[in-house]
């Protein structure tokens, strides 16, 4: 049976992607050695499923539909910039996400539902963020640290998350290509 790489995420509106592109361009003019995420691919990952058997796709989509029931759209604020594992040794540059408890409730419900159909639970606690770049050259870390200090609390805007998306991810040399497998609106039923 064939497997495809999949994940579940919240998409961003174009207006927010444009602001994140501006941040990337501003950083990119001052820092070399960072691979910036294609703005069209920036999303808020709720659960990375990894290699998923094609015969499980319908089960995942059905589980996602059930998990989305009873949830109203909720506001996500994008504020601040940071890095993993930490700002002193940056490897991944991210934009921070501030949310109300509804996102955490939904992510937990989703995690539980997917565990019931055989997907392993995440060992780390859920840490919502938007990955915007990856530091590829260790010499760039000093400049990244400096810019994070200068721009750490930058307000990038907010949006209402009204749907959740089940994605397929095809890896290729120029970067991943994401395809929507299922797009589900939140509905308070």
Task: Please state roughly what percent of the residues sit in beta strands, choosing from under 5%, 5-15%, 15-25%, 25-35%, 35-45% or over 45%.
Answer: 35-45%
Oligomeric assembly? single chain
Helix proportion of residues, in percent? 25-40%
When the domains are counted, the total is: 1
Itemize the secondary structure elements and their pairings.
Layout: E1 3-11, H1 14-30, E2 34-36, E3 43-53, H2 57-68, E4 74-84, E5 92-99, H3 101-116, E6 129-135, H4 141-151, E7 155-161, E8 163-170, E9 177-185
Structural features, described:
The protein has 189 residues and is α+β, with helices and mostly antiparallel strands. The protein has one domain: Cyclic Phosphodiesterase, Chain: A. It is built from four helices and nine strands, in the order E-H-E-E-H-E-E-H-E-H-E-E-E. The strands form two sheets. Strands 2-6-5-4-7 form a five-stranded antiparallel beta sheet. It has a four-stranded antiparallel beta sheet with strand order 3-1-8-9, with helices on one face. A hairpin with a 6-residue loop joins strand 8 and strand 9. Helix 2 runs antiparallel to helix 3. The longest helix has 17 residues. It is globular and about 45 Å long. 24% of the residues are buried. The mean pLDDT is 92.
